[in-house]
Amino acid sequence: MTGASAETVLTGASLEQLATLLYRLTGMRFGEKKRYYLERRVALRMKRTAVTDIARYLLLLERDPHERQLLINAVTINETYFYREEHQLAALAEEILPAVAAAKKPGDLIRIWSLPCSTGEEAYSIALWLLEQWPLVDAYHVEIVGSDVDTHALDAAREGYYGPRALARLSGTILSAYFEREQHHRRRIVPDLRESVLFTQANLNDAASVASQGQFDIILCRNLLIYFDDLSRAKAAGHLHDALLPGGYLFLGHSESMTRIDDRFDPVRLSGAIGYRRR
């Protein structure tokens, strides 16, 4: 790419303009501290679009929804693995789901939302854990939905291929039961499990996008709010509240808390985990 590099592509003004656009689209703040991170990804997108001038690329972003989505994909962080924050999965099977099921009849629908689901590990972990640890999993119609703003991550989730790092916390028994044999240092989730999780695009910063997913008994929204500022967190909390059925449960990441963001959630102390319940 002539005339643009990862080191020089963003001036102060263009960085501010780009950060404002991304904040409007995703709720995530990208400031001076993340200049190098953004520069590398913007330089890659400029190379792919054959645009050599940052001003022209910013104009392209304003008029081209597809390129905006590709930039969102490029700046999204998809760092996860199977059975992450395992204590929450244990609380889900041992305490939350029995409480939810107690208010339903056998065969009733229980909806669980994983947002962001990244490349699928988050949502598939829920399915695996329930199959192994919740005896009543077959007594109810459990629907697991995995959503993310990154369309490339969703494509990877639907394909269901994972390498050693993502699988490191899974036992050999689980790998044998739910994954195909290793090929080229990757294993693929078996078809029945891939088909049991629905993957959809959703943007927690957008009310209509969240509303399109319907309402859920349980939401796991882990390690996303850390990228938001106070205003975006409050907005996201409102969307999560509306996406939960009354009395529904929410899990956040271990470093996140709803207590100071939205008082419509009551903290719930569980064995080894803290959740939040919509009043």
Characterise this structure.
This protein is of the alpha/beta class. The protein folds into two domains: 12-75, Orthogonal Bundle (Chemotaxis Receptor Methyltransferase Cher, domain 1); 86-278, Rossmann fold (3-Layer(aba) Sandwich), CATH 3.40.50.150. It is 45% helix and 18% strand. Strands 5-2-1-6-7-9-8 form a seven-stranded mixed sheet. It has a two-stranded antiparallel sheet with strand order 3-4. Strand 8 (265-270) and strand 9 (273-278) form a beta hairpin. Helix 2 packs across helix 4 (65-75). Residues 1-7 have low confidence and may be disordered.
Summarize, please.
The chain is built from twelve helices and nine strands.
The share of residues in helices is: 40-55%
Low-confidence segments, given as residue ranges, are 1-7
Task: Return the CATH topology of the largest domain.
Answer: Rossmann fold
Number of strands: 9
Superfamily (CATH H level) name of the largest domain: Vaccinia Virus protein VP39
H/E element sequence: HHHHHEHEHEHHEHEHEHEEE
Number of helices: 12
> What percent strand?
15-25%
Strand order of the largest sheet: 5-2-1-6-7-9-8
Question: What is the CATH architecture annotation of the largest domain?
Answer: 3-Layer(aba) Sandwich
Radius of gyration: 20 Å
What is the CA–CA distance across the termini? 54 Å
CATH class of the largest domain: Alpha Beta
Structural class: alpha/beta
The main sheet comes to:
7 strands, mixed
**Rough outline:** globular
**Integer tally of domains:** 2
